[in-house]
Amino acid sequence: MTPRSARLTTAEVSSILSQLASASSRSEHARCRKSAARIRALAEESDRDRRRLAASGAAGVLAASFHEIAAAGDGSLDVLSEILSALVLVFPVDDEDVFSDIGSPKSLDAIASILQSGGSSARLNATLVLKQIVSSNKDLARAAASIDGLIEALLSRIGDPISPRGKRASLLAAFHLVGSSEESTTARFIRTGVVSLVLESLMDSESEKRVSEAALAALDRLCSFELGRENAYGNALTVPVLVKNMFGVSDLATELAVSSLWKLCKNGEVGCVVEALQVGAFMKLLMLLQVECRERVKERATELLRFFNKYGKGLGCIDSKDFRGLHRPV
């Protein structure tokens, strides 16, 4: 494609978006696909034009068009995939109307279908859009988690040989879904092996802070349920990963790691206590009491230390003199 030399005008943007809106409202799929492809090409060609499209409300028009075609039930995945390929270029946005359209049940059904049956590029774009949806609003995340096949399709994408960007988006979307889902939906996640997925992502030394925080939030949510704790107890990575993430990531990661370990230990798993002591949890929790952090974190850290004292002395793991001066109420 020959690069454009002229600046994209407001009038041109308005005309392109009007053509897309008109085509989608009339279910003229060929025209709709052509308009979406033009928006994508302009956004890819010039960052200046991409910003102009975004500022002119392109995301809203694309989301509305996707919703209309998905709701009509007669649109091909090719047309819907083309719209998503343009939409990812003008995200992120904070317009509730955009998420209302792209996060509608019919739109989410279509996104799930693309995740299941689309080509590699289409699946990547669907994952990127889904990540934006579920991270924007917990109600939308719960709605997405209830869509048949969406959870399974998303998790299956994580194991594919896709781009680092796609893997990151898949992980973030999955973790946001876990963190927002109802108990019955959380059980679906657990049965698909999400606990192992969360722990493996936390073991990845290249994971960025945002991914680690989302993973820890998901694990903390999973540990709120008996089935989740059972899966966590059965995975050799659980305790070492939690102790490792108590420091060095962020204050939020520290809070989530302590919370998860507290949930595991307080539910009577002595083996978890012993392992935590063996991998250095005791000293890290003592250090945590000396630094600035939320009171709730310190309360749980103190309770864990008292818990270690209760079980650890009889197992020869710690000496009671280590707890001298520890009088913080729990």
TrEMBL record:
<dbReference type="InterPro" id="IPR058678">
    <property type="entry name" value="ARM_PUB"/>
</dbReference>
<dbReference type="InterPro" id="IPR011989">
    <property type="entry name" value="ARM-like"/>
</dbReference>
<dbReference type="InterPro" id="IPR016024">
    <property type="entry name" value="ARM-type_fold"/>
</dbReference>
<keyword id="KW-0833">Ubl conjugation pathway</keyword>
<keyword id="KW-0808">Transferase</keyword>
<feature type="domain" description="U-box">
    <location>
        <begin position="12"/>
        <end position="324"/>
    </location>
</feature>
<dbReference type="GO" id="GO:0016567">
    <property type="term" value="P:protein ubiquitination"/>
</dbReference>
<comment type="function">
    <text>Functions as an E3 ubiquitin ligase.</text>
</comment>
<dbReference type="Pfam" id="PF25598">
    <property type="entry name" value="ARM_PUB"/>
</dbReference>
<protein>
    <recommendedName>
        <fullName>U-box domain-containing protein</fullName>
        <ecNumber>2.3.2.27</ecNumber>
    </recommendedName>
</protein>
<dbReference type="GO" id="GO:0061630">
    <property type="term" value="F:ubiquitin protein ligase activity"/>
</dbReference>
<dbReference type="InterPro" id="IPR045185">
    <property type="entry name" value="PUB22/23/24-like"/>
</dbReference>
<comment type="pathway">
    <text>Protein modification; protein ubiquitination.</text>
</comment>
